[in-house]
Amino acid sequence: MQQVFPGEVFANTADFDTGIRQLLPRYDEMLEVITRCVPSTSRRILELGCGTGELSLKILNRFPDAQVIALDYSPRMLQFAQNKITAAGYQQHWTGTQADFGDWADNPEKFDIGSEFDACVSSLAIHHLQDEMKLKLFGRIAASLTQDGCFWNADPTLPESPALAEVYKVAREEWSLQQGISLTEIRAKRGTSTTQGYSSQDQLASLDAHLQMLSKARFKTVAVPWKYYGLAVFGGWL
């Protein structure tokens, strides 16, 4: 299997957009929830781990006057996202930067991305960090937001018990069967994930642990606007 960075998932970048929709139930719905939770007044939006640019595109479709500053450590993902954003006509509203957001959390002075963001978003990326780094990242996000700024993250969460782990697994498999999807075929297209910078294979935390971290990081209001078995959209406002 080809070696890939955590989060790249597939050996071939072009397989990502189709493959992730086959691996994860309700992927588009999950991202739409984030775009709805971002206030319409947002002008500067930071995206951490932009991947192929799907969330960026959904945000710009909703807020075409916004500026999205997107970080990702994968050059191939950034190029794919850049091409997609350009094809949609938003190239003046999107800046992709090759960067490890774990490094940004640890060493913000190294990065010239500014602060005073109205919103920060992320999807399927932060779960690759250890919990200590998740907390540090949430603190860095809080420090980079405007006074009423918000942060929304879509990620898999650690099941609260072995019984629920089984429930989540069965629900996902039944969903795939209903869609006529062979998980074996999809998984065959995956690469082998290796540690890259601050990220490694899945390092899931429970939803409750995430919410506690957000509260510790100075988010006054924390919320879970969407949850589907083991997937959740969570975040809050300063």
UniProtKB/TrEMBL annotation:
<dbReference type="InterPro" id="IPR029063">
    <property type="entry name" value="SAM-dependent_MTases_sf"/>
</dbReference>
<keyword id="KW-0808">Transferase</keyword>
<protein>
    <submittedName>
        <fullName>Methyltransferase domain-containing protein</fullName>
    </submittedName>
</protein>
<feature type="domain" description="Methyltransferase">
    <location>
        <begin position="45"/>
        <end position="149"/>
    </location>
</feature>
<dbReference type="Pfam" id="PF13649">
    <property type="entry name" value="Methyltransf_25"/>
</dbReference>
<dbReference type="GO" id="GO:0008168">
    <property type="term" value="F:methyltransferase activity"/>
</dbReference>
<dbReference type="GO" id="GO:0032259">
    <property type="term" value="P:methylation"/>
</dbReference>
<dbReference type="InterPro" id="IPR041698">
    <property type="entry name" value="Methyltransf_25"/>
</dbReference>
<keyword id="KW-0489">Methyltransferase</keyword>
